[in-house]
Amino acid sequence: MLLVLCVDLDDDLGRKTGFSTPVIGRDPVEEAAVALATEDPEDSDVNVIFQGLHVYDDLADRDESVEVAVVTGNDEGDVMANREVGDEVDTVLASLSTAEDVTALVVTDGAQDESVIPIIRSRVPIDGVRRVVVRQAQNLESMYYTIKQVLNDPETRGTVLIPLGILLLIYPLALVGTVLDMPGFVLGTTSALLGLYLISRGLGLGDRLDAAVERARRSLYAGRTTLLAYVVAAALFALGGVSGRNELEAVREATPGEVGVPVMLSALVYGSIQWIAAAGVTTSLGQITDEYIAGTLEWRYLNAPFYVLSIAIVLYAVSAFFLDEVGISFLATALTVGTLLGIASTLAFAVIESKYSDGADREPEDGTRQTDRA
Questions:
Q1: Is residue 8 within a helix (H) or strand (E), and if so which, with residue range?
Q2: Residue 201 pLDDT exceeds 70
Q3: Beta strands per DSSP E along the chain
């Protein structure tokens, strides 16, 4: 049996018509094609589905064993779309009731959809690939229309027009820089803007920034204390940086000659550790509060502020020792206290969590025993 597979990698059929995919059989596939053509006549996947129907009818007229189906992916990226197509191909193959060996003819509208061919080949042998090209697209008349459609796409506009616009601005900006006697500054600024834009597009920083802003907005409207805790922690961290720099300057002024790297690091840590520890405690308490409000708090989460304090005590003592602020006895005591504080909090909350969880597990058993005795 030959299976004619029409591939719609970005799921235009499902998103625009609401059809549940995969679509199997000539009549359902024809209904899907008509629905997609009615909803969006310009979609190239319409031609793919009708081409699949044409191939099906041609082979059926020759009394060959043939079936037609439409499989789709999603718009979440190539990897997720390919996986979705693979799952739908498995569904189609499982629905075929035939004892014959099944091979496939894949119908696509371009190279992007053909990226899924290895996924299909891993499930069924492929006899051929048919790429549908609209004849009008070969004419010069349609070039204007194609360019217009491309430029109407917001993502394409951002990808093509912005760097092109920056490049076209280089010459007039260079003229302005020459008039202002600052040609190097103007050209450097323009080049930096173009470079930053290309780097941000390449790394997807715009999408990440949008996601971060959306998370912050949701946290704000949901009343999450983590957002406030992060803001306060950022301020405390900045104060810690200033304090550490001031301490480093004081050490440099008080030390004759060159200051070694260990002393410099110790001065930075000694001046900033209390602020950084406060920032760590603030963020951990904010997270604990949100977990408690959401009903997902576990006892071991309460270890976080104690761990922060333990680390802060150890770093403070070590940095103070390198700066000759404390002696060896103070260092040994601080190391012992920091270690014992972390161990004690871990053991304490582990015992409490174990006790409460055991109690919760015993309640249903006790209740069952009481019911049985009754």
A1: strand 2-8
A2: no
A3: 2-8, 23-24, 66-72, 103-108, 126-131
